[in-house]
Amino acid sequence: MRATPSTAALLSPLAALAALNLFLADVRDGLGPFLGVFLQEKAWSPAEIGLVMTLGGLVAMLATMPMGALVDASRAKRAIIVFGSVAILAASLTILAVPQFAAVAVAQAVNGIAAAALLPAIAGLTLGLVGPAGFDRQLGRNEAFNHAGNILAAVLAGVLGWWFGLPAVFALLGAMAVLGALSVLAIPADAIDHEAARGGGAAPAGTGKGRESKGRESIGRLLREPALVTAAITFGLFHLGNAAMLPLFGQAMVATAGADPSALTATTVVVAQGTMIPMALVAAWLGARRGYRLVLLLALAALPIRGVIAAAAVYHGAAWALIPVQVLDGVGAGLLGVATPGLVARILAGSGRFNLGLGFAMTAQGIGASLSTLLGGVVAQQVGYGAAFLVLGSVALLAAGAYVIGGCPGGTEPGRRDDAGTVAPATG
User: Fold this and answer.
1) Which of these, 20, 133, 231, 270, has the minimum number of CB atoms within 10 Å of its CB?
2) Is the Cβ–Cβ distance between 330 and 348 less than 8 Å?
């Protein structure tokens, strides 16, 4: 009897990694925007919905650095991804079965912790598969498949939700989680260089296995790394200006231009995510050749332009401005999605703490995003939507200033770090 080929034999490691990013794009965010709609149908008040969704975000932010440290220390990165996907699926099914505040709050906390583990685990897995030399290019591919997965999930969720109701969205999430787990298990365990995966020493040529470094850089020293602190402040300020712009723009267009909320939301997702795919590839190409200075500055430049267009659209009631506003959203987020792990990997090359450092940067992003809605909401209420967009866009100027004052880290070659643990001088 002829043997059936195993899953691992059907996909190359990088093809399996691409499939993983495609399917987990939907899983990482859990129910995402559908959670609020589902809870609203269960007669939850807006305050209760906001509280429980905020809880998940806060737990995720607090868990990001510990999860990054776990990924650095663990050789079971595939298992972390599988367990994280299963945890998000189980939490989502709990919400479906028991839509009571206590149960949903616990489920959202579980979601937050699992989501905080998935991103560094995928980044570490990628670095362990391709090494520092191939990391920039692979980051672009990862992000391209991730954004394609977001578009696919949004379309399928919309169609299935229309035909079968919100429970179909839970079924879609389950299918994506299963396919994501199968994809990561298709990556052979011995294809992962775990020393490279945490930003340590590279494996000896031809061995297929990572060697252990003499020691990891202390956490305190790592968090005082000037280049990492500069990058984290820059990322945090970008998200302070960026995170609230889309929901505020949607509210403004519905209020001033009479736009249809459902059609508006669907269009924003497709336009932004579609733009992010080529931008991710461009960011990877630029990062590999010129470092991440230009990539990060281009991402920051897109934000004030977006704010000006959004403000003008509000003043003139121009719903057509949705397209350029969301294209620029795709430009900024698409570039930054690659620049964040790519820049952190260059700054912390040789430290053995890449995923912890990535968690530090993501925590800064989370703080910025959390404060963004507060900043935008207060300005919109006191002065108006147009002023809110101008204020949010101007935050990018602060981010650019912080980045320039901090020395513009990101121009070094992959893997370059001097003996003192600081970033080596730029080579080009």
Assistant:
1) 133
2) no
Closest by alpha carbon to 76, among 160, 184, 149? 184
Distance CA 349, CA 225 (A): 12
199-234: pLDDT as tens digits: 876 443 333 344 344 456 677 777 788 999 999 999
Return the amino acid letter for 152: L
If you write DSSP's letter for every residue of 274-297 in order, what string do you get? Answer: HHHHHHHHHHHHHHHHH-SHHHHH
The list of the chain residues with pLDDT below 70 reads: 1-11, 30-33, 201-217, 253-268, 317-319, 411-428
- Residue 44: predicted pLDDT: 84
Distance of CA 274 to the CA centre of its chain: 16
Selection from 112, 56, 59, 54 nearest residue 84 by Cα: 112
With contact defined as beta carbons under 8 Å apart, do 99 and 38 qualify?
yes
Dump the DSSP string for 357-419: HHHHHHHHHHHHHHHHHHHHHHHHHHT-HHHHHHHHHHHHHHHHHHHHHTT----SPTT-B-T
Record the tokens describing residue 120, joined without a space.
């560094």
Check if the beta carbon of residue 68 is closer than 8 Å to that of residue 223: no
- The answer to whether 107 touches 116, Cβ cutoff 8 Å, is no
Domains and CATH numbers, the chain: 9-196 (1.20.1250.20), 219-405 (1.20.1250.20)
Residues contacting 49, CB < 8 A, separation 6+: 35, 36, 39, 40
Stretch (H or E) spanning 200: none
Contact call for residues 329 and 272 (beta carbons, < 8 A): yes
pLDDT number for residue 257: 53
> What is the dihedral sign for C-alpha 29, 275, 390, 382?
negative
Q: Which residues contact 428 (CB under 8 A, 6 or more apart)?
A: 290, 291, 411
- For the purposes of burial, counting CB atoms within 10 Å of the CB of 301, is it exposed (0-12), middle (13-18) or buried (19 or more)? middle
Whole-number Å distance between alpha carbons of 357 and 226: 12
Nearest to 193 by CA among 135, 277, 142: 135
Q: How far apart are CA 189 and CA 210, in angstroms?
A: 12
pTM: 0.83
